[in-house]
Design a protein that fits this description.
The protein is an alpha/beta fold. The protein is globular. Strands 3-2-1-4-5-6 form a six-stranded parallel β-sheet. 28% of the residues lie in helices and 23% in strands.
């Protein structure tokens, strides 16, 4: 987008309790870590999102971002209480202030906060890149529900085929993302 030419990396809810039982937790975190390095090297904003609610109270051990990934003091941290990282937060204003028109999306939980935030970004006019190997959800699901690998594969497939009249939606591997 000509009026918003910048890209930003969005790291959603990679918190201790959120990813404790995640599918391929360590590989996903390693991919996110590499993306954080790449974004920082390109001077692209890295924006961290932290969820809190009754099940994940703020400032508890489980609420903190995993130790492998640590925001720098200059990086924005968005605290949210809903699945969509835009709902009742400053995220859109913060992106607009930075002239961001393209979001590179990573994090957890694929079937909740990642999907809702992707949809929220698209409907608000942001180009989106879902990093297919840098988002995760719980490894196991209740009986008769898809497991983590199936949820991730389905989300990647659906997002890769997403169309919109004015913005783009794509899926890319972490190694292929440029800022």
């Amino acid at each position: 987008m000509a009026d918003r030419p910048n890209s930003a990396l969005l790291v959603i809810d990679v918190q201790n309790d959120v990813v404790a039982a995640a599918h391929q937790r360590n590989a996903v975190i390693a991919n996110i870590k590499q993306l954080v390095r790449s974004a920082r090297a390109a001077d692209a904003p890295v924006i961290w999102v932290q969820h809190d609610d009754e099940e994940l109270p703020a400032e508890t051990d489980g609420w903190h971002i995993v130790p492998e990934l640590q925001p720098q003091p200059s990086e924005l941290i968005i605290r949210k209480n809903f699945r969509d990282s835009f709902d009742a937060t400053s995220l859109q204003a913060d992106l607009d202030e930075r002239d961001v028109g393209r979001l590179v999306v990573t994090g957890a939980q694929t079937d909740f906060c990642v999907r809702w935030t992707l949809q929220g970004a698209l409907s608000r006019g942001y180009d989106t890149v879902l990093v297919g190997d840098a988002h995760t959800t719980d490894e196991t699901s209740p009986a008769s529900m898809p497991n983590g690998a199936q949820i991730i594969a389905h989300t990647n497939s659906v997002w890769a085929s997403q169309t919109h009249p004015t913005v783009t939606a794509e899926v890319a591997a972490a190694a292929d993302v440029a800022f």
